[in-house]
Design brief:
alpha/beta, globular
């Protein structure tokens, strides 16, 4: 029975979540702050796990047609996220830094070689919140691609009591998006990790 409910949830929940995301998207007042310009060049893309309600939609507004995939954990919650992102034209790569890391990173490099952008939440799938994983840094350094950073702040929002303090802006509120392209070229792993973490913490809801 439990397996049946999970299977039903994987079918029903993603389109409902997608619909709610789009309703909030179209009923909020959005302002985009481009800290640096974002062209059409290929990036590794990052946002915090708690910002997944809005950041993938911001990504699709900026890179409307760019082929993209996202590293999503292999557990049940990940299946729901994968199904939802699929509706935004973002292909899921299943795995995480805790389970199946080597396999999913190989998939990510293959996606990059095909010209796709890869989206990753550095603190996913289970935290700690706002922790910078080695996977995100390694992917950016080894691919030699700049990092597309997406953050947002909302004037009024709900914040869940989950580990990631998941943020859902309230309809008709103001949402400020902070977008930048960051080069990690020439940095050592530790330096790149500290630098990207600092940049991502500047414009996020704490």
């Amino acid at each position: 029975m439990k397996d049946l409910l999970r299977q039903a949830g994987q079918v029903v929940i993603p389109p409902v979540a997608y619909l709610l995301m789009r309703i909030v998207w179209y009923t909020t007042f959005k302002k985009f702050h481009f800290i640096t310009s974002i062209g059409e060049e290929q990036h590794v893309c990052v946002c915090w796990h708690g910002e997944l309600f809005m950041s993938p939609q911001a990504y699709r507004k900026i890179h409307k047609n760019h082929p993209a995939s996202a590293i999503i954990s292999s557990h049940f919650d990940g299946s729901l996220i994968a199904g939802t992102l699929n509706l935004l034209g973002i292909r899921p790569l299943r795995g995480s830094s805790r389970k199946g890391a080597q396999k999913v990173l190989l998939q990510a490099f293959k996606s990059i070689r095909r010209g796709e952008e890869v989206l990753i939440t550095p603190d996913g799938p289970k935290g700690p919140r706002h922790h910078m994983s080695d996977g995100a840094i390694g992917l950016a350094l080894k691919s030699k691609l700049p990092v597309f950073v997406m953050n947002f702040k909302a004037e009024n929002y709900w914040q869940l009591k989950s580990w990631d303090r998941f943020v859902i802006p309230k309809p008709f509120t103001k949402v400020d998006f902070y977008i930048q392209s960051i080069s990690l070229e020439g940095m050592e792993h530790k330096e790149a990790r500290a630098y990207l973490l600092a940049q991502m913490l500047k414009n996020t809801i704490m």
